[in-house]
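User: Quick sanity check before I run a bigger batch. Here is a single chain. Can you write out its predicted 3D structure?
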Amino acid sequence: MIRGLSFFMIALAPMLLLDRPAAAAENPLEGDLRDLSVGESVEQLSSDHYVHFACGNDGGEPGEAIDGWADYAQCPANRDGLHEVAFSYAEDNPWAAVSDKWEGTKVAGHPVQPSLLITDDGMVKGIRIVTNGKPLYLKKKAFLLPIRIMGRYGRDGWTCEEHEPGGGKTAIGGMFIDRLCEKTFHDRRLIMKVDLYRTAEQHGQDFTGSTRFEIYKADAG
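Assistant: Done. Predicted structure follows.
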């Protein structure tokens, strides 16, 4: 079922930007994630302020460590033929001096696992950002990250598919979110998946709570 975004999210959407100082929010095309942008070649990427390079695992716990961006080919290609390179922000990242919200590997205050999706010939085709569910109280708030994303890329133009409870998925504290949204922004294709629910196999403090945001360089033509 296709629906517009909820009133709650629309009302709060202008609040923020995507992990950049406020002055940079005016033009998201100047950088998709800090100084990293889709469409760049591996040779253009700076390794300054980034550490813990490893083969990505679809946004999950990273796998085999690699030395840097240039070793992307050591990571197996996914079904789309892209090599996922996970990384973390170094503690000396200059954004940390702006505010403590930039400390650690976070986006808009949410702990995340970021990764680049790189083609065989070394072009950054996509950027993947997945909340990592740590600590628990922030996992419960992961569904709020889309508010920040919409504040950066605009509230209009999103097409969202919203699913109702069912198939073993139930609400948590009266809230249920199983939403997939997409938007074309200039030459970017944005995909945002938001989940907040409990499955039949989950009990107590175990639940599904995450936001996955992907930025792709749209194909020409």
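Residues 5 and 33 are 24 Å apart (CA to CA).

User: Great, the batch can go ahead then.
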